[in-house]
Amino acid sequence: MKLELRGITKVFGTFVANDAIDLVVEPGEIHSLLGENGAGKSTLMNVLYGLYRPDGGEILLDDEPVRFSGPGDAMRAGIGMVHQHFMLVPPFTVAENVMLGNEPGTFGFLDLASARRTVRELSARFGFDIDPDAVVEDLPVGAQQRVEIIKALSRQAKVLVLDEPTAVLTPHETDELMGIMRQLRDEGTSIVFITHKLREVKAVADRITVIRRGRIVGTADPSADQTELASLMVGRSVALDLDKAPAAPGEVALEVRGLGVTDADGVVLLDDVDLDVHRGEVLGVAGVQGNGQTELTEALLGLQKGARGSIRLDGAELVGRSTRQILDAGVGFVPEDRTHDALVPDFSVAENLVLDQHHRAPYATGVLLHPEAVRRRATAEVEEFDVRTGSIDDAVSTLSGGNQQKVVMARALGRDLSLFIASQPTRGVDVGSIEFLHRRIVAERDKGTPVIIVSTELDEVIQLSDRIAVMYRGGILGIVPADEDRDVLGLMMAGYTAEAAREAVAAGARTSDTTLADEGDIV
Amino acid sequence: MSAPTEGQAPAVAPGTATQPGDPGTPGAEAAERSAGSVLQSIARSNVLVVVLAFVFAFVVGSVLILVSDVDVRAAAGYFLSRPGDLIGASWTAITEAYAAMFRGAVFDLPGARKVADDIAERGGSGLYLLGPAFLRGIKPLLETLTVATPLIIASVGMAVSFRSGLFNIGGTGQLIVGATAAGYVGFAIDLPVVIHLLVCILAAIVAGGLYGGIAGFLKARFGASEVITTIMLNWIATYALAFALTTSAFTGANKAQPTSPAIAGTARLPLLAGDQYRLHLGLVIALLAVVFLWWLMSRSTLGFRFRAVGSNPRAAEVAGIDVGRSAIGVMVVAGALVGLAGGVHVLGTEQRLTGSIAGSIGFDAITVALLGRSGPVGILLAGVLFAGLSTGGRFMESAQGVPIDLVQVIQALVVLFIAAPPLVRFLVGLGGVDRPRAPRRRTATGAHAAPVLAADAAAVAAAEGPAAPREGAHRAPVEPAADGGAQPPGPPGDPAEPVGPVDSADPADPAGTHSTVDPCGPDAPKGENA
């Protein structure tokens, strides 16, 4: 089905989210909508899906103008949408979720069998490997996303909108999703692929439309140069490569010995980890998500209550100390999930910036808070980190994801540190801001602070790190120099030791992750 | 709370054991958080909505006045022949009823005029006439302020807990404990004049704080829902007081009556406006309490922590804030304030302990705090307004024969309308559905009648479930809270029921899936690109 948007305009108050947008998606093409956070991509798709009524312009399906008054209309017209946050009922099974809102059956009796059959058919046709009777909340994120796709396909979606589908996926799952997208395209489905990740666009899109501040600023071919796309998207030239001076590591500042964490069920989450981090170096922690990185950073912060072993920072033991004491010892921390672990949504930007320091001078004396000091700090940080906010008194929840991340980074970096730990420092952040945040991290290293960066994006780890520790099943599999071969790192993430991985690569083995990397390599 | 040990989700929520949220179970934790965010949104409900809610409540109240008015019903009988009669009778009934309410709550113009006439007859004029007349006229207003005094102080305590994400339903219990402590010190111990009063007030604060602290401790240490524990603590306090009033330690010589001896003169709160009014120093304490609320919540590190934990306990914990200690702190402070209200009530207004000393203040305070959006100014206004409704309503009943129940209905309607901002907007024809970054629908609730409230507290949590996906469908993730919240709240009055919605968002935690061997582990990033 051919989808055409003509002159779509959407205005919120005085803010023009979409300004006369024209977009044509041909049948059987993957059309990528590329833009920074807050550029208006999601608004446009919500207009298409009937969630917003446009203030101008029209939608045409196969050259017929259509009007949607809600998602129901859009679905009936053959438009399917997979939201960034899944719209699934966690305790329901896959089949139940798929038929939800479109229950087959007569006289109020559910026809679960036919829903199951649909799931099985679609699953088999596209190689989804989804059991219709699995409970959704037990499925990994990638599988949940496939359930969303099945849901859309089961309603005969001819146009499938994927809103930032890779934001929640591991590199491996991203590869799988791209395979699925290609297959869907080959069977005639049109796909609108919303993202801000250049590499994915280049890997999978047939056509690229770049959107910035609510307007279409250009269309491009997947063969276009990455830097070119990035500058189109951001509106200025962007350096994708991080040129950093070689590290000048000093003495060992952080000594981790035999650090272990076991959960209540006796599962070992962190297994006897030994690590040294020197002053003025970045230690990258690579690994597929869920291999103990979260536990490692949390144990360092005193958030894992039952941690064993020893963590010495500048000679002082941290195990057994409270999070407050550890933070007061000069540890700056950026948690991996800013919404859940880092920000208080109702608090202003200013209040969030002092969340971990609010009890200390100059922000407080005893129980007395000093709002002027808090505001002064906020004004300075917002300026320095270029946090785009109306006012430092705005609730942090009104900021875009990238700007929220800048607030978290500013909070952690805004004082003299004895150790800086950042998990997924640039998750959900657009290209322009990534560049800035990376520079800040390197600047912190150059000040002589030991830095630990945990990221599931191998590119990021490679770019930032001076040494890379690969985690696998709760343990450190090995620590390699930052210029280690990508394929070796990929194999190590899959459980090979460094030596075995090097041998395998020498023998010609490649990981699936690197196929993608080669198609559009940032490094 | 169902087995806090069962689901220590290791990878996602380590260290939740000390969290006031349900330890371990992410679902329940989310439910807690959603209940917390409901409180937050109540705290910020629109002023316009509040005003309109009153307008609508009074409109509905007018209808009820008409239905209950004899003349109106008589005139309705011959409506077709003389429609003017019905309209006239209706107008009279409504205006007289509301005039009586005003007269009973704010200014007694007929009473003042009568005093003025009496003095004029005896030859007085000028200030000799206006002075006494004015003093007679403002008697209802001062009575309203007297009634408002404990209500405002208790609401301040409620506001502290609401803004910290804790749904403290224990006003009654904390009030009783405070009143009992102050009352006992007041009649059983002899102390010099000023000191006696101060010791009584201190006793009320300490007793209330400790009593509130019990709920806080149970929450921090064992993850017990404060909604349940505070309700149960209400009953314990109520019956403990009833029992105490059968013992000679409390009744003194007069063993036949379940009331204590009068508070000693040295311990009474001094009257503020002379003998003919009941208004006492408690009003000043109420004003100080309101100022304290402002200071605590916006100028102290303690309030900063309370609010942070109330809004996102996990982020607060990661930022080094001890979440459990904060929960205890919140409940101690809230309980101390409500206990103070009880002390003021017994030392100023009641002057002796009775089994019904708390009346409905404990629950009204919840409503007032919600109405006042848990802010200092709002609470002051809402407290006086509520007190005015009840003093005015009493007068309306005696003067116009309009049942006092009507006032209760109006109070309940006000809360009902405030709980449903979309309804209010719909009624005045304000649309405006899609906004950028559409915030969650503001949901608010509260209730007037005591037993209904417990269930309502749960209904608040429930409201968030179905409400969120409706307007915020395009951005609201499917939250675990939704499935728990979607369950209908239990029948009113059953204290066990609210557990359902609050607690049942407790889907078996897929802890097993968190083992590190799963490369696509379920700790899905919840990254948000707004």
Describe this structure in words.
The complex is a heterodimer of chains A (about 525) and B (about 525). Chain A is built from 19 helices and 24 strands. Chain A has about 525 residues and is an alpha/beta fold. Chain A has three domains: about 5-235, P-loop containing nucleotide triphosphate hydrolases (Rossmann fold), CATH 3.40.50; about 250-330 and about 415-520, 3-Layer(aba) Sandwich (Rossmann fold), CATH 3.40.50; about 345-405, no CATH class. In chain A, helix 4 crosses helix 5 (about 140-155). Chain A is globular, with a radius of gyration of 24 Å. Chain B is mostly helical and about 525 residues long. Helix content of chain B is about 65%, strand content about 0%. In chain B, helix 7 (about 140-165) packs parallel to helix 12, helix 7 packs antiparallel against helix 15 and helix 16 (about 360-370) packs across helix 17 (about 375-400). The radius of gyration of chain B is 26 Å and the shape is globular. Chain B starts with about 25 loop residues before the first helix and ends in a 27-residue tail after the last helix. Chains A and B meet through helix 1, helix 5, helix 9, helix 10 and helix 11 of A and helix 13, helix 14 and helix 21 of B.
- Arithmetic mean pLDDT of chain B: 76
From the alpha carbons, calculate the radius of gyration of chain B and give it in angstroms: 26 Å
Q: Helix/strand/pairing class of chain A, anyone?
A: alpha/beta
Instruction: Tell me the domain tally of chain A.
Output: 3
Largest sheet of chain B: none
Low-confidence stretches of chain A: 512-523
**Which class of the largest domain in chain A in CATH terms?**
Alpha Beta
Q: How many distinct helices of chain B? A: 22
Characterize the main sheet of chain A. Answer: 6 strands, mixed
Q: Identify low-pLDDT runs of chain B.
A: 1-34, 431-530
- Would you report the number of β strands of chain A? 24
Please name the CATH topology of the domain at 145-402 in chain B.
ABC transporter involved in vitamin B12 uptake, BtuC
CATH superfamily of the largest domain in chain A: P-loop containing nucleotide triphosphate hydrolases
InterPro entries (chain A): AAA+_ATPase, ABC_carbohydrate_import_ATPase, ABC_transporter-like_ATP-bd, ABC_transporter-like_CS, P-loop_NTPase
Protein name (chain A): ABC transporter ATP-binding protein
Pfam family, one (chain A): ABC_tran
Organism (chain A): Brachybacterium rhamnosum
